[in-house]
Amino acid sequence: MRKMMGIILxxxxxxxxxxxxxxxxxxxxxxxxxxxxxxPQQVEKNESVIVKAAVTxxxxxxxxxxxxxxxxxxxxxxxxxxxxxxKRENKGVYELHTTFQQDGVYIIQVxxxxxxxxxxxxxxxxxGEVEKESRPSTEEEKTSHH
Length: 146
What we know:
The protein has 146 residues and is α+β, with helices and mostly antiparallel strands. 16% of the residues lie in helices and 40% in strands. Strands 2, 5, 6, 9, 10 and 11 form a six-stranded mixed β-sheet that branches. Strands 1, 3, 4, 7 and 8 form a five-stranded antiparallel β-sheet that branches. The relative contact order is 0.20.
């Protein structure tokens, strides 16, 4: 009899925990952290370049991201990449101001952490004279959500 009462008590406690967790869930679907990366596709050597990352959470611009960094490297030299802090503009826009001293294809990937999410889209910039064979595939331009 004592065993049966113990089991019933445990079931009541477990069901109470389940109900309180369900009542705390408001049924809201979390928004996605979106990052739209824009910039020129082709520039000349030593030309000033601005690449923008527009960060939104749902329809709301994110002006207070936990971390935003631009990673820049020449195609084929990822191990020589540089992390650059952006200039924060308004309405969720973060800007990278840079120049490139050598011809080639450069990959720019922005790393954004906000609202407990991480997003890291990439874009390519062709600098000066670039041979077609050296252009990276569009596969590298896909966006990653983590």
